[in-house]
Amino acid sequence: MQYVVALDQGTTSTRCIIFNQSAKIISIDQMEHRQIYPQPGWVEHDALEIWNNTQEVLYNAINKARIDIKEIVSIGITNQRETTVLWNPKTGQPYGHAIVWQDTRTSNICNELIKHGGQDRLREKTGLPIATYFSGPKIKWLFDNNPELLSKANNGEVLFGNMDTWLIWNLTGKSESGIHVTDVSNASRTLLMNLNTLQWDEDILELLNIPINILPEIRSSSEIYGKSRVPLVGIPISGDLGDQQAALFGQTCFEPGEAKNTYGTGCFMLLNTGTKIVPSNYGLLTTLGYKIGSQAPVYCLEGSIAITGALVQWLRDNLQLISKSSEVEDLAKSVEDNGGIYFVPAFSGLFAPYWRSDARGVIVGMTRFINRGHFARAALEATAYQTREVLDAMEKDSGIKLKSLKVDGGMVFNEMLMQFQSDIINVPVIRPKITETTALGAAYASGLAVGFWQNPTQLKRNWAVDKIWNPAMDNLVRDKLISGWKKAVERSFNWQ
User: Fold this and answer.
1) What sign has the CA pseudo-torsion 321, 327, 329, 332?
2) Is 37 helix (H, G, I), strand (E, B) or coil?
3) Per residue in 248-281, is it b (16+ CB within 10 Å) or e — as a string?
4) In sequence order, what E strands does 201-266 have?
5) If we measure between CA atoms, which residue out of 310, 315, 314, 308 comes closest to residue 332?
6) Which of 63, 172, 409, 422 lies at a CB distance of 3.0 to 4.6 Å from 429, suitable for a disulfide?
7) How many CB atoms neighbour CB 244 within 10 A?
8) Are 283 and 314 in contact (CB under 8 A)?
9) What is the mean pLDDT of residues 244-268?
10) Is the Cβ–Cβ distance between 280 and 286 less than 8 Å?
C-alpha cells in the first residue's frame, strides 16, 4: 500500500490526514494553537508554535496509521491564506508573531491607498480590492512600524511567507537547505501578484515599499518543490494550495461553473471560471484556483466571509452560552424561529460583497421575548444569509445560475443550518461523503505530481454524495427574512 500525507494548517489548528489511493482517510491528528489578541482588531499566531504542532501531528498521524514511512509517496500542504510571517533566513526565528488574515491593523494603510485611486485601483492587476484581508498591507505595516526590519530586508536578512511558505521552508531544511516557494493560489492572495503574468508586480511592490528579495518564488500548485528533511526524511513535498482553493480541488470542481462553499472559521464560496479571468463588478474576488504543473492556470470568483464558525466559538468562549460548539444546534432548535433578531458578525469588518472595514458586529431587533435559543439561531442563520449574498453576487458576475451548492467544512454536520441554507438560497445543498475536502485537495495536488493519481477523471470517481438538503421555504417568508437581514447589515456600517 502507498499513501499521501496532507498537512492542513488552518486558522485555529493544524491537522495531518493520511489518505490512500481511494481517498479514504487512514488516520488523522490535530492540534489547536493559540489565538493571540494584543488589542481590539489585532489577531496574531505564533509561527514557531505552528511549526512545532506541524511536526507533532505528522508523527502522531503516522503512528496512528501504523504505516512505514517508505509507504508515503508525497506530502501536500494547504494553509490559512493571507496570514503573514517574516523571519530570519539564518536563524529561522520569526520577527514577532504572524499577522492573521482577520487582523484589521492595516486599515489606515488601506485607507491611504484608497484615497489615491479608490478601493479598486489594484483590482485590474490582482483581482482584489484594497482591504486589510490581504498580505501586502500587512508586510508594509511591519516595515512602517519597524524601520530597522526594512533595512534588514534590504540586506537579505528577511524572508516573507504565508503559512505554506513557512512550513515548506522548515520542512526542507530551514537555513541549511530550506526552499523558499509558494504556489499561485497563495500568491494571488497577497495583493502583490499579477493575475496575467503569475509573477510579483514590481509597480505594486514599489507602491507598498516591499523589497522583492523577501518574496518566495511563485510555482504551480502541483509539482515537486523539494524533499522533506524533517520529520519525514526524503519524502517529496509536491502539493501546495491555499485552503479554499484546496477545498475546490478536493470537491473535484474542475469544470467552469462548478462551485463549492466551505464552512469553517469563515465561509468561502469559490466558482470555477476556467482559464478565463472574470472581473467582478459585485464585490467578489478574482483569484487563482489552481495550476497543475505546466498546464494553464484555472481562475475563480470567490466570495469571502470573515466570521461564520468563529461566531459559534464566540458564543462558547466569550458569552459562554454553550460549553462546546456542537451544542449550538440543539439550543437553536429550542425556538421556532429567530424571534425577529439578526446577528451581523462584522467583528473584522465585512468582507464580500461589501468590503467595509468600518463595519462592526451588531445584534438588532431585540425585545423582552428574546432568549438564549434565539441568539443561537440568529448566529447560525447569519452564516446562511451571508452565503446568500455572496451567491447572488456570483450569479450576477458569472451569468451562471447555480443549480446546487457543494458544501464542506466543520459546520456542514449542523442539520438545522444546512436546511436553512438550502431554504435561503433556494437550491439543493449537497454534502459529500468525504468532508475533509481541504486536506483532500492538497493530497490530490501532491499525488498528481508524483503519479500516485493519473488525472482528474480518476479523482472524480472518488467523489460521492452523503446527503442532500432541498429547499422547503415559502417564497414570501424567504423574501421577508432576507429583507430583514439587509436592513441589519446597514446598521453595522460606519462604526469604526
Assistant:
1) negative
2) coil
3) bbbbbbbebebbbbbbbbbbbbbbbbbeebbebe
4) 217-219, 222-227, 236-242, 259-263
5) 315
6) 422
7) 30
8) no
9) 89
10) yes
Q: Quick one: CA dihedral 327, 331, 337, 343, positive or negative? A: negative
User: Which grid cell sits at 100?
Assistant: 492573521
Q: What does the DSSP 8-state code read for residue 52? A: H
For residue 473, what are the contacts with CB-CB under 8 A and spacing of at least 6? 423, 424, 426
Cell, residue 287 = 483569484
| Parallel, antiparallel or unpaired: strands 405-408 and 259-263 | parallel
Question: What would the mean pLDDT of 330-355 be, rounded to a whole number?
Answer: 91
361 Cβ contact partners less than 8 Å away, ≥ 6 residues apart:
307, 343, 344, 345, 346, 347, 492
> What pLDDT is recorded for position 195?
96
- Degrees to nearest 5, angle at CA 76 with 72 and 80: 145
Crossing angle of helices 415-425 and 372-398, in 10° steps, is: 40
Between CA 225 and CA 229 the distance in angstroms is 13
How far apart, in Å, are the Cα atoms of 22 and each of 18, 444, 445? 11, 11, 15
C-alpha cell at 40: 481590539
399/148 Cα distance (integer angstroms): 49
Quote the CA–CA distance of 418 and 267 in Å, as a whole number. 13
| pLDDT tens track for 176-211 | 999 999 999 999 999 999 999 999 999 999 999 999
Tell me if 258 sits within 8 A of 460, measured CB to CB: no
User: What tens digit of pLDDT does each residue of 439-460 get?
Assistant: 999 999 999 999 999 988 889 8
407, three cell numbers: 458544501
Q: Are 465 and 433 contacting, i.e. CB atoms less than 8 angstroms apart?
A: yes
271 pLDDT more than 80: yes
* Alpha-carbon span 415 to 468, nearest angstrom: 11
pTM over 0.85: yes
H-type helices in 209-277, by residue range? 243-250
Between CA 315 and CA 322, with CA 316 as vertex, the angle to 5 degrees is 100
State the chain's mean pLDDT as an integer: 93
Which of the 8 DSSP states describes residue 41?
T
